[in-house]
Each structure stands twice: as structure tokens, then as C-alpha cells.
């Protein structure tokens, strides 16, 4: 199976390992991520103003490129996923935005939300299947107690993201079980890490991240996993790395026996 | 520039949200991770828009404390979505010349070698135009 793939800015720079472990794992699982050409930054945050058009066009370009190839579009960074999925929803369901964006883009055929957007975790759950993933694990992380940190962007708003139950998600816990480890459920797993507030208000992020890490620690987690480079940065930076924080793709690569080849490269 | 009452309509237009549907249940403020930092709380924010007191909103600290975490948007039972109103008020400010909340000159002091690109682009989008 071949998918169009949108890595995003951070995965080309500070979060290179999030990307590299995902690509190696995809190969091990037998699917291909074909990076779309000339992708542009998604903007990091979804523009909430209903009159915003220009700031959504980079997502539309990526979505349209996947459509032209007849492929689903796979994302990995939580922020890119959030933005692209929501812009796709606008293009499908909001006539005013669809019309204005298409008038600007002048595509051969107007784009109207045809592309299916999948987060890498959704590929694992819905396309590969966690049972199948479990069969491919050669190095199970037996006995590891792992707290899933979801944050905001993958889950909310649930009606548009359609990723999991936004108040009681389980996709990452199911993932943790599939790689042989033990999920730790703790109350702060879908609370905000502070997001962009950590640029100007470090104390706010510190407070929020310590709540998250203390909560996970109190319930017995030995480490946290995330899909978001900004959550990763905030959780590490604001808590003096009380608990290790890793990208879920690193553990996936480890379980699939392909981590070393990535680390050597 | 003075803020006139029609700014309330501008906020409704930008947000696409109808504050009159609010039933004052307070779920937004109960959910808000920035509640303690906000001078005008999310549920109060809705009332200010209803009362067309936009001047207080554009001067409030709350605009810059909102994290866009979408907790209030997810949980609002009346689809008023206070986070969208807060963002609209933020837009009213940053769309004016010279009113960016984040200046490029500030950046070097705010970052460190691990700062992810995502943090900078996100802050740029929320804090300036």
C-alpha cells in the first residue's frame, strides 16, 4: 500500500527522529510513505477565524496533490494532522471557504475535500490493524509501563478530527499493548501541555506540564509517549525530564526491530 | 483607534459563533486550563460579547492566555464555542497595524537550541498578522 505523506517543518528539523522511525517502521510493516512534492508549512495552528482563507491554502495544495495521485494523505505531527484534517473538513462542508480557495487556486478540477486524511496511528489501527502489528513485533517491550500523552490536537474537536473518543481515548493504549508494553491510564493524558504559550509564558507551560507528568508518575508510568514535537519539547523542557518522553514511533521501531538501523543512519 | 459597538458584530462574524445561545452552564470555564490566568473567564467572555463591551475584551489579558486547546469548544453544549470568540477578539487586535503581540525582535531571547519550528510558526499565527 502506498500513501501520500506530509511530514511538515518540524519533522525535517528538530523532530527528525519522529519521522525517521516512522518511515523505517512503515517499511517493516509493508506500506510506503511517498512524500508529496513541494509541500509547504501548514502554519502549525488551524486558523479559527471563519474569514481566513490564505492561511489554509498550503493544506489545500497538499490535499489536492494527494487527490491527483489517488492516494490517502498520511500525517504524523499532531499539529499538521489537526490543521490539514480541519481544512479538509472546511473544503468539504463550508461552501464559502471552498469557493474562495478554489477561485484562488485555479486548479484543473476544483478541490472539494475528496482526500482521506489519516494520522499514522490511524493507519496502524484502521489499515494495518493492531492485531497484525502485534504479529510483526520481534522485540516486545514486555513489562514497560507507558503513559500515553494525547494532548489536544489529535482529539479535539472530536466531531471533525474523528480520531478517537476525545474524553476517553484508547488508540495509544491499544498501540502500547500491541508492542507488548503495559499502558498506564492517568487523568491528565488529554490535558493541554501549554502549546505555543511556552514561547512567551514559560511559567504557565511549566505548571501545566508538571501536572501532566506528576499525574502519570503517580499512576506508575515509567515514560510518556507522544506524537507531537511541541508537546515533547514542553514536557521535557518544563519538567527537568522527570519522566522520559519519547515519540511513539521510536518505540514502534524498537518493537519492530528496526530502531538500530535508524540510529546508525 | 476607538473600538465601536459594531466590533461586537465583527467578533460574531469572524468567529461564526452566536453568543446568545449561551445558557451559562460554565462548562467552558470549568474546562479551561488557563482559567486561573484569565482576567475575563471564558464564560464571562461570552457575556461581554452579548453586552457588546468589546473594549474590555481587546484590553484583557485573557486573549494571550488562551491556548487554543479546544476543551471549551469540545465541551460547549450550546455550540457557542468561547475559544472561537476569544480568537476573534485576538484577531481584532492583531489585524490592526502595529498591534502584534509577538515582535520579531523578541524572538532571539525566547528560544533555545531545542525550540521546535512548530512553536515559532504556531505563535506567529496566533499572536500576529
Query: So what's the oligomer here?
Result: heterodimer
Strand content of chain A: 5-15%
CATH class of the largest domain in chain B: Mainly Alpha
CATH fold topology of the largest domain in chain A: Rossmann fold
Strand order of the largest sheet of chain A: 2-1-3-4
Secondary-structure-based class of chain B equals mainly alpha
Question: Could you write a compact summary of the structure shown?
Answer:
The complex is a heterodimer of chains A (about 260) and B (about 130). Chain A has helices spanning about 15-30, 55-70, 80-95, 95-105, 120-130, 130-135, 160, 170-180, 195-200, 200-220, 230-240, 250-255, 260-265, and strands spanning about 1-5, 30-35, 75, 115-120, 145-150, 180-185, 225, 245.
Descriptive report:
The complex is a heterodimer of chains A (265) and B (129). Chain A is built from 13 helices and eight strands. Chain A has 265 residues and is an alpha/beta fold. Chain A folds into two domains: 2-120, Glutathione S-transferase Yfyf (Class Pi), Chain A, domain 2 (Up-down Bundle), CATH 1.20.1050.140; 130-259, Rossmann fold (3-Layer(aba) Sandwich). In chain A, the strands form two sheets. A four-stranded parallel sheet of chain A has the order 2-1-3-4. In chain A, strand 1 (2-6), helix 1 (16-29) and strand 2 form a beta-alpha-beta unit. In chain A, helix 2 crosses helix 3 (78-93) and helix 10 (202-218) crosses helix 11 (229-238). Chain A is globular. Chain A starts with a strand and ends with a helix. The mean pLDDT of chain A is 97. Chain B has two domains: 6-96, Fumarate Reductase Iron-sulfur Protein, Chain B, domain 2, CATH 1.10.1060.10; 102-129, no CATH class. The two termini of chain B are 18 Å apart. The mean pLDDT of chain B is 94. Chain B has helices spanning 6-15, 27-31, 42-50, 54-58, 71-75, 82-94, 107-110, 117-127. With 129 residues, chain B is mostly helical. In chain B, 48% of the residues lie in helices and 0% in strands. The chains are: A alpha/beta (265), B mainly alpha (129).
